[in-house]
UniProtKB/TrEMBL annotation:
<dbReference type="InterPro" id="IPR016164">
    <property type="entry name" value="FAD-linked_Oxase-like_C"/>
</dbReference>
<keyword id="KW-0285">Flavoprotein</keyword>
<feature type="domain" description="FAD-binding PCMH-type">
    <location>
        <begin position="46"/>
        <end position="219"/>
    </location>
</feature>
<keyword id="KW-0274">FAD</keyword>
<protein>
    <submittedName>
        <fullName>FAD-binding oxidoreductase</fullName>
    </submittedName>
</protein>
<dbReference type="InterPro" id="IPR006094">
    <property type="entry name" value="Oxid_FAD_bind_N"/>
</dbReference>
<dbReference type="InterPro" id="IPR036318">
    <property type="entry name" value="FAD-bd_PCMH-like_sf"/>
</dbReference>
<dbReference type="Pfam" id="PF01565">
    <property type="entry name" value="FAD_binding_4"/>
</dbReference>
<dbReference type="InterPro" id="IPR016169">
    <property type="entry name" value="FAD-bd_PCMH_sub2"/>
</dbReference>
<dbReference type="InterPro" id="IPR016166">
    <property type="entry name" value="FAD-bd_PCMH"/>
</dbReference>
Length: 455
């Protein structure tokens, strides 16, 4: 689907001689899309969107050449890491260039507590190097094996590790970002401290991230466990166990992921371990904390049905790959009519609203919780699995949650304000005016910018 004029594209290709360019239709389709198909709404809206070509720079100097040429010819640019996002962040709405940063994949340096890496470095690859000195990244999405650090910071919010370290938006979880501007004479800007929020979680709208400086966490040996709660007691005992574990400051943990039945039945590798009808908790716990964990499990009536040491867990599939957005992936691999929500429940150790939504929607909205730390308190966020019928009903479900005080980060929109942002940070608007004066970065995905341009 060509949007840019052919003569502009030819001039662009000439200007980028020596940089890898991809025009093969099959590759162009693959590199124009992400996991938008989790949403039946986005599937209808985005399935035909394509870039005109993919450019894959090998270093920052080549990124600057691409930025300059696209600015000079007014060609839209959509930045891509690994394409593991779910909301169409890296899908080009108006054609143009897909800027694939996967070749910028080096760990530049690492020392105790901090690392400097290129934006296209995969999270798992970063950990492989930093663990050699006893450290690891603080948090990661369930796409840990394939996701890039730049994409995670631009499009993500938290993940495995957030039960201890909160979210990417929390001060101190991103130390510095290096970005290239989209101007006819591109500049390199280094953002440190709170300045990183001008670019983080902005979907690639506010500059091309080339390097990231991130804090590291101590690399504990992480045991992996599945705790089952029998069918006769339902989901809520599992939820209360998750809250108690989140509140247990002396137990070192990395992941608390809870799933109501029948979600565990969609996890093929775990079917032989989980009793029929059981709710489950998927856990990553420091090996030194497993013994006190067992006491907590007994208190809440759970049963350990899967238990791997850190060494055993390092081989084969990781439990983290059944959590966060991968839960939806596993469910949809069995039933493509399923979709999902993204919600944040109010902080309440009694979990009254979790129980209300679990009982109110029953089998239509299957409860899936991830515990994270918000303002110092272990709090459940939901990625509930929804049995999709109509778009109107999906909107009704989200509206009911919001009317009852549950925050919804709508995963069925490609407009950044309609998702989790609601209102754009004025700092980000001002910074976009500075670094992307022609509005070429990921156009069509920020309502505030479109209204400004048309006004």
């Amino acid at each position: 689907m060509t949007v840019a004029a052919p003569d502009k594209l030819q001039a662009l290709r000439s200007a980028l001689a020596g940089i890898e360019i991809i025009t093969d239709p099959a590759q162009l389709t693959k590199l124009s899309l992400d996991f938008y198909h989790y949403s039946p709404v986005l599937t209808r809206q985005l399935s035909e969107k394509r870039g005109d070509l993919v450019v894959r720079p090998a270093n920052e100097a080549e990124v600057m050449r691409v930025a300059a040429a696209c600015a000079q010819h007014r060609i839209p640019v959509t930045i891509r890491g690994a394409g593991t996002g779910n909301y169409g962040q890296c899908i080009p709405l108006r054609g143009g260039v897909i800027l694939d940063v996967s070749k910028l994949n080096q760990v530049l340096w690492a020392k105790p507590g901090v690392a400097r890496v290129q934006a296209g470095a995969k999270l798992m690859a970063i950990d492989k190097q930093t663990r050699e000195i006893g450290w690891e990244i603080r948090m990661a999405p369930s796409t840990y094996r394939t996701a890039t650090i730049g994409g995670f910071i631009a499009g993500g919010s938290g993940g495995i590790g957030s039960i201890t370290y909160g979210q990417l938006r929390d001060r101190g979880n991103v130390l510095a970002l290096r970005v290239v501007t989209l101007e006819e004479e591109p500049r390199i800007i280094e953002l440190r401290g709170d300045e990183v929020f001008k670019v983080s979680h902005a979907w690639g709208l506010n500059g091309i991230i080339t390097e990231v400086e991130i804090p590291l966490a101590p690399a504990y040996p992480w045991a992996e466990l599945v705790v089952a709660f029998p069918a006769e007691v339902g989901f809520m005992p599992a939820a209360h166990f998750g809250q108690a574990l989140g509140d247990a400051d002396g137990i070192i943990k990395k992941m608390i992921s809870l799933h109501a039945w029948p979600i565990p039945s969609y996890f093929a590798p775990l079917r032989g371990s989980v009793p029929e009808g059981s709710a489950i908790a998927l856990l990553m716990i420091a090996e030194s904390s497993v013994e006190p964990l067992m006491e907590l499990i007994r208190e809440h009536g759970g049963q350990v049905v899967y238990n791997k040491t850190a060494q055993e867990a390092s081989k084969g599939i990781m439990l983290g790959e059944f959590t966060w957005n991968h839960t939806t992936l596993h469910c949809r691999s069995v039933d493509t009519s399923l979709t999902y929500l993204q919600s944040a429940f109010p902080a309440d150790r009694e979990l009254k609203m979790v129980q209300h939504m679990y009982e109110y929607f029953g089998d239509e909205v299957l409860m899936h919780l991830e515990f994270i730390r918000i303002e110092g308190q272990a709090t459940p966020v939901g990625l509930q699995i929804v049995r999709f019928t109509t778009e109107d009903r999906l909107n009704e479900i989200m509206r009911y949650h919001e009317e009852n005080g549950v925050f919804i980060a709508n995963p069925h929109t490609f407009i950044i304000e309609d998702g989790g942002r609601k209102v754009m940070d004025p700092r980000q608007i001002r910074f976009k005016q500075e670094v992307d004066p022609y509005g070429l970065l990921n156009p069509g995905k920020m309502r505030t910018w479109q209204e400004r341009a048309s006004g």
